[in-house]
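Sanity check record (used in CI):
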Amino acid sequence: MKQLEERIRHDGTVKPGNVLKVDAFLNHQCDVALFDAMGAEWARLFAGRQIDKILTIEASGIGIACLAARHFGDVPVVFAKKTQSINLDGDQYVSSIYSFTKQREYPVIVAKRFLHAGDHVLLIDDFLAKGNALHGLIDICQHAGAKVEGIGIAIEKGFQEGGRKLREEGYDLKSLAIVEGMDPETGEIRFAESE
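Expected output for Xanthine phosphoribosyltransferase:
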C-alpha cells in the first residue's frame, strides 16, 4: 500500500536493533484517515472471505482493527488483553507470547463469551516481526474452535522470519507494507513490492 509506505518513509524513524518507530501515525498518535484507508485495503484483499469477527491484541492493534471492521460490515472487534484484571470475569482463553518490543513474555487473554466455535476470524495487528503475537492469537482461535480466515498486518518486517513461517503454515497473510531492510545510520527504509 503506497500510502502507508510513503507515510513510513516520511514519518518513520529507524532505531538500532531493527526497531522501526512509527508512533507519529500508527501506535501512539493515530492517523484515523490512514487507518480507514488501511481497512478499505484489507477489505479488498480479503474480499469473498466470510469474516464475522476481527481479533487483535491491545493496545496498538485496536484502532486499526476498529476502523477495518467498518469495511467488513461493522463486525465486532475483540481484543486480547495483556494482563489479568477484575474486569476479566468468567471462563477465558489464555496463551503466552514473547514481545519483541517489550523484551518479555506475557499472557494474552480473551473471555470465552466473545469467541466461539464456528466464528470466522480475521486477525489484525500493527507489526509482524517474528510472529509470536499472531501465534498467540492463532492458539486462542484454535482453542475456541474458531477459523482464522486471514491475517492483516500494517507493517511486516520481511527480513525477519514471522511472515514466512505463517505463510508456510498455510495462513492467508496480507501485509500492507513489507520492510525488506532498514539502516539506522542513514535512516533508509527499503520495501518489498506490494501485493
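The helical segments are 2-11, 32-45, 60-70, 132-144, 162-168. If this sentence no longer matches the regenerated C-alpha cells, the check is flagged for review.
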